[in-house]
Amino acid sequence: MKHDDICEITCVDDVKVKRVKESLAQKNTMSVSQIFKALSDDTRIKIAYALSEEDELCVCDVANIVRSTTATASHHLRLLRNLGLAKYRKEGKLVFYSLDDEHVRQLIQIAFAHQMEGKAHE
Fold this sequence. Notes:
Blueprint: H1 14-25, H2 29-39, H3 42-53, E1 57-58, H4 59-66, H5 70-82, E2 86-91, E3 94-99, H6 102-121
């Protein structure tokens, strides 16, 4: 079986490898991987998308959008909050969630734009 997607010989560009390794050593890759892990769950990506469309949503609204119980929605929202992707505020007996910042909104929007772009190429 032949694989066309791997190098047939070993040829390392030491300058590029050193530059990227040094840059990567200064990054917290585990933190970034946790963000993508959180967003890899279908319910959480739906919630993140909903929050990217609206400035903020009540837990009950989120549950309705993703067709879950409020307890399930609250669990997912708490996880997103604990990872720094969402924030909340309480108003009386209601709890409203929003995305933590514009970077999170852009990440969600770019992911969906990329997905739509992929459909166009199929």
